[in-house]
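Researcher: Structure prediction, please.
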Amino acid sequence: MNGCDGLVKLTVSGHPGSGTSTLVHGLMERNGWTSLNGGDVFREEAKRRGMSLGDFGELCKNELDVDRSLDDLLKQRMQGPDGADIVESRLAGWWAYRLGLPCLRVWLHVSDEERARRVAHREGLSMEDALQANSQRSAVDGERFRMLYDIVPEEPEPYTHVIDATSLNASQILEHVVALLEAIE
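Model: Predicted structure follows.
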């Protein structure tokens, strides 16, 4: 993208198991880009506090200042002169949209069953446990995002592109997004 040096080129958002991390990794390898992962920030803070992701999500829901501080940090880093090329988080597209950042904003949509299959495979869970964990996490996070910001992450409003990636493999998703990026260069 021309004129975007030091600015975010792309945000990638989606529910757990939708392939956002795999897509970001592929784009980083292909283009030599840097990334900022909001989920890593969230997971690092949960680990630092000795909490599970679900429990930390509950803490963020009950102590809204904790959650707001994580989101404020992400937004600041998105706007910085040395910001990452790609920002990956469930709300990255919303933040870029609300901040008026001139970038591609992608939401990866994947069915609940396929996301659970991917999470089960990645984390060694049963399909039933993965479905339940995804459902619980989505419910907790969804309630928190609505309470804090009146945002539903998967609403299409902020995204320049919503990709149904349910039946696409990692290479197909990568090529699709590369084509979108090339179309705007």
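Model: The mean pLDDT is 90.
Researcher: Thanks, that helps.
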